[in-house]
Every structure is written in structure tokens, then in C-alpha cells.
Write a structure and sequence with these properties.
Chain lengths: ~180, ~280
């Protein structure tokens, strides 16, 4: 039943989604980002693969337009790698939904992803997937509920295991340079 | 006849998925999608069960909005839960377990959990309970509210039937089957009492006493000599009918067909019991 249901849904939604993505293009144009119709189709095809891989079903308008709007002002996304980055981000989105077991809403997850992508990840989807989201998923599976309050914002501080700013080292370097 | 395809129900499932996620998640797992699809199908079948007519558009071959049919079926599910609760309240008011632990645990502890945990909106097909105590003649193919309603209707009839006999007589029949019946007897308790009542009637003994004498088995055997299973079942059904007709009015309607439903099983047991020169209630 699952495979059939997915096929039925995909067939029904394609035209509708193309129209939505075309409208989203108008919003992203100000950031120099555009998707062609072929790009949009490729994005939907890879979305369908991700949904099947993570055994999920989308009934409504899906997450693509929200994902695009959330990330379109990123300092790390450029037109040359726009499609590729979106494909990776949506793959990460569904992977995390699968890993976290429905514990996070779409908006909370997007807020968390965007915040880390812009800060600790410096635009690396690999770091976002393998480090930030893996740690966050483990914490959520362990029963963490703090995201309800934070809406997915400012969550990574407590998960980070790396020292990102070593004050002593900084002072040593400053002394070496200016003293 | 099923007049819809699964594809027709997707818009209804999509709306239900929105409710399930409170519109906070655009996707659900296969497992959740399957549960929601089954929930919609369950309600549509409730609607079909009432023999409702097809939406007009379906006859014209056009796309049909199945939402009203689903909502109607959902209302029926709620109505069945309310009916089940009414029956349970009547049943539990003067509930007698005859010391049988399995019976008591299922009815007193199990059934209330159904009313607390049953989810008619998102999972009406799951009746949650394993119903460890078996009712005498209910379908095990039903599920959800249908299963619980039919189960409670059956148990209520059985309890009404058992109430007609002195408590110690019922206990005596159960002890004959298994001396430690209180903790170890896992089968239905009405069936052996009904079987014994049938035997007493055939042997011309007092039905209320539920007691047979040694020579009675030969007498009962003579009544069925040379009969095939179907004829035995028919004779037993007639005796059960007489017993059911003698039940007072406070035993719920439908008692006769319900109790008669045990006749075929009794006929098989009767054949075995006669071969062993024993009471069928002991088999």
C-alpha cells in the first residue's frame, strides 16, 4: 500500500508544486537565486527519492517552498550551487525527520537547520548532517523537550562538543603580534 | 459492494493527516500514513454498512468528495462507542465473575482501558485490547469499535443467561471442568453452563440444578443416535431456542440467535462426549 500511495500522491501534486515553485522564484530573485522548470522537476524528483528512502509521505504542499524561503537569504548559497544545495538540504530535512521520529515540527527543524548552516557549519551541509543534526536527533530521541520552548533556535550551544573560542590562545596570539 | 478506490480517499486522508500533525509537519511516516488510510477506510465502511447511497457525482463518473461519507461513518463509530459504553455500564452494575480471574480481569480491568485509550479519529480500527476472555459467539474478524460493541453485546447476553442459575450451581459446573478454574480457566464460562442446561433438558432433569446423573448420558446419546453433525446441531439449536425463550425480559434482545450460534460447536462436542460417555460440558 505504501508504494502505491506514494505514486498516487506524486502524480496528483506535480503540476501544483511547479506553480508554487515558480511563485517562490519571485521571492528569491532579490537574492540572485532562481530555479528553472528543469531545476524544479529535478528538485521534486530528488525529494521523491528522499521520501521513499526515509519512508515518508507528503500529503499537502510539501516542504520545498518553505525550505527555499528559509534558506534563500543564506550567505553561503549561490546560484551556481543553488540546486545542488537545495537537494542536499531537503535530503537532510527528511533524514532528520526520520531519525528524530516526528518529535520536531517543520518550522522548528528548519529554524535549527538554518541557524547552524549559517553559524557553526559555515555553509557545510556535510557538517550540518553528520554533526549538528546527528547530535540533535540523539538528544531528542533521549526525551529532550526544550525545542518546544525555543522553537529550534539557540539549541546548539548545549550540544556542541568543540571549543570554538579559546580565550587563552587568542590572548597568546595577540601578545605575540603586538607586544 | 465497494464503490471507491483507495486513490479516491487520498484527499480525505490528507485532511486527516493535517489534523494528526496539527499542520506542524508536511510529511508523515509510512506507518502513520497507513494508520490514517485505514482509519478513513474504516469510517467509509461504516458508512457503507448503513447502505447509504452513492454521492450523485459517482454515478455520473465524476470525481467524488468522500469527506461527507467519511464524516458520516466517523459519527457512526462515535455512536457505537457510546452504545458500547452504555452496555458496559449496565453490565458492570451487577457484574458477577463467579470467581473466574480471567473473566474478571478482562471485563473489570480491560474494558475501561478501551474507553480511555480508543482513538476514533486517527485509529478507529484498533480496539487496543486483546480480549483475553473469549465471548461465546462473536466474530474475531471485526476490529475497532465494532469488535468491542459486538463483544460487549455478547457478554451482556451471556451474563443475563448465567444470572438465571444459582451462583453455586454455575461454580459447580466450572469446578467439574477444572477444580482450579478460578485462576487457571481461560475459556468462556457461559458455554459449559449452556451445554449442561441443554443436556439437563434433554435428559429431563431440572435445568436450574445443572446436574446430571450417571445414566443420563445413555439417555442423551439415544436422542442423537445415528444423527449426522448437522442434524445434531439442529436438535441442539431447538433446545437452546426453548431455553432462550424462557429467559426473562431483562435479558437483552437478540439472546436467542446469539445463544443458538453455539449449536454447531456443541454438536461437534456432543459427538465426542457421546463416544466417551461423558458430559459435553466437560470437553
Amino acid at each position: 500500500m505504501d508504494g502505491n500511495l506514494l505514486m498516487m500522491l506524486q502524480g496528483k501534486r506535480q503540476q501544483e508544486e511547479l506553480a508554487v515553485l515558480e511563485r517562490v522564484n519571485e521571492d528569491t530573485a532579490q537574492f540572485g537565486l532562481m530555479l528553472t522548470e528543469d531545476d524544479a522537476r529535478a528538485l521534486m524528483a530528488s525529494r521523491n527519492e528522499s521520501l521513499a528512502r526515509y519512508q515518508r509521505v507528503e500529503f499537502g504542499r510539501g516542504i520545498l517552498d518553505k525550505l527555499i524561503v528559509a534558506f534563500c537569504d543564506s550567505q553561503y548559497i549561490e546560484q551556481d550551487s543553488y540546486l545542488e544545495t537545495l537537494e542536499e538540504l531537503q535530503e537532510i530535512f527528511y533524514a532528520f525527520k526520520h531519525e528524530a521520529g516526528e518529535k520536531l515540527t517543520d518550522d522548528e527543524l528548519l529554524a535549527f537547520m538554518k541557524e547552524q548552516f549559517e553559524s557553526v557549519c559555515f555553509g557545510s551541509t556535510e557538517y550540518l548532517r553528520d554533526t549538528c543534526l546527528e547530535r540533535y536527533a540523539a538528544k531528542l530521541r533521549g526525551g529532550y523537550e526544550g525545542h518546544r520552548r525555543s522553537q529550534g533556535r539557540g539549541e546548539y550551544e548545549q550540544l556542541s562538543e568543540e571549543m570554538r573560542w579559546d580565550n587563552d590562545l587568542y590572548m597568546d596570539v595577540v601578545k605575540e603580534l603586538f607586544w | 459492494m465497494q464503490v471507491w478506490e483507495m486513490e479516491d480517499l487520498i484527499p480525505v486522508v490528507a485532511k486527516l493527516a493535517d489534523k494528526y500533525t496539527s499542520k506542524d509537519s508536511s510529511s508523515v511516516s509510512y506507518e502513520t500514513a497507513r494508520m490514517l488510510m485505514e482509519a478513513v477506510i474504516y469510517c467509509i465502511r461504516e458508512w457503507e454498512e448503513e447502505g447509504q447511497s452513492l454521492p450523485a457525482a459517482a454515478n455520473a463518473g465524476a470525481a467524488v468528495d468522500w469527506e461527507p461519507a467519511y464524516q458520516h461513518g466517523y459519527g457512526k463509530v462515535l455512536e457505537k462507542v457510546r452504545r458500547a459504553k452504555g452496555i458496559y455500564e449496565e453490565l458492570i452494575a451487577d457484574f458477577e465473575d463467579y470467581g473466574c480471574r480471567n473473566y474478571k480481569d478482562t471485563i473489570v480491568k480491560g474494558i475501561p482501558a478501551f474507553f480511555v485509550k480508543y482513538d476514533p479519529r486517527f485509529c478507529p480500527q484498533d480496539h487496543i485490547l486483546t480480549l483475553d476472555y473469549p465471548a461465546m459467539c462473536v466474530s474475531v474478524t471485526l476490529c475497532g469499535a465494532d469488535r468491542i460493541l459486538e463483544y460487549l453485546q455478547g457478554i451482556q447476553i451471556e451474563a443475563g443467561f448465567l444470572r438465571q442459575f444459582p451462583r453455586e450451581r454455575v461454580i459447580r459446573v466450572l469446578r467439574e471442568i477444572l477444580p482450579e478454574y478460578r485462576s487457571l480457566y481461560l475459556d468462556n464460562i457461559c458455554a459449559p453452563v449452556l451445554m449442561r442446561a441443554v443436556e439437563c433438558m434433554i435428559a429431563g432433569r431440572s435445568v436450574l440444578a445443572l446436574e446430571l446423573q450417571e445414566g443420563d448420558y445413555r439417555l442423551i446419546g439415544e436422542q442423537f443416535r445415528g444423527d449426522d453433525k448437522d442434524l445434531m446441531a439442529e436438535k441442539i439449536r431447538r433446545v437452546i431456542g426453548v431455553l432462550a425463550d424462557a429467559l426473562p425480559e431483562d435479558v437483552p434482545g437478540g439472546a436467542r440467535p446469539y445463544l443458538e450460534g453455539a449449536a454447531e460447536d456443541f454438536a461437534v462436542r456432543m459427538g465426542l462426549a457421546l463416544a466417551a460417555n461423558s458430559s459435553i460440558a466437560r470437553l
